[in-house]
Amino acid sequence: MSSHTSSRDRVYQVSSNRESASHKLRYVEGSAPASGECRLCVGSLAQAGKNDVPVTVQTASSEDIPRLAFFEKQLYDNDAYSSLFFYQALRQWPSGFLTIKSDEKVAGYSLIVPLDGSRATLMSLLIGKSFQGQGLGRILLEQAIKSAAESSWKTLELSVAPNNAAAIKLYKQAGFSVIETIQDYLGPGEDRLIMSRAL
């Protein structure tokens, strides 16, 4: 990596072997393209198809935002994060804002924001409807954790609906454990489990 290459140029590339329903992850130093009931969607890699589909995880750019806002609206309607929120997130927490691309198409995002000097929270992780069922949520979660560990954070937290069994299972597999249940966390009747893992 050249001395003038910024952290924004880090690209994680995944080759998905669809025939064996497995994936291989490798870290690639390179240049990012110049142009170009938690918020978690989980799926396994599809077994159909013979060709590897390139998957990259990299820091978000302003060019990604319209697509991310579309996915939000598609999945959450009136509760969706707006384009304005994403632009603010890009300005305030650029290193914690990742996107995942499948075959060079934006497929989803994750956002980690600070809580205090040693703790951060996985505020959101989302895979667009048309990209679900390919294991992208798991890949993005792994890279979000890796990115947080490379920062100064010691602990990563998140909140998840108590009835979201699939997400809770995935989080536990990624090393998170439940530390507390908070009633009305996101408003009346919107209880959440707080999960945490060391980095």
Describe this structure in words.
Helices cover 23% and strands 34% of the residues. By secondary structure, it is α+β, with helices and mostly antiparallel strands. It has one domain: Gcn5-related N-acetyltransferase (GNAT) (Aminopeptidase, 3-Layer(aba) Sandwich), CATH 3.40.630.30. It has a nine-stranded mixed β-sheet with strand order 2-1-3-4-5-6-7-9-8, sandwiched between helices. Strand 4 and strand 5 form a beta hairpin. It is globular, with a radius of gyration of 16 Å. It holds the Pfam family Acetyltransf_1.
What are the SSEs and their pairings?
Blueprint (H helix, E strand, L loop, with lengths): L9 E8 L4 E8 L23 E7 L5 H12 L6 H10 L4 E6 L2 E10 L4 E9 L8 H15 L4 E6 L4 H9 L3 E6 L9 E7 L1
Parallel strand pairs: 6-7
Antiparallel strand pairs: 1-2, 1-3, 3-4, 4-5, 5-6, 7-9, 8-9
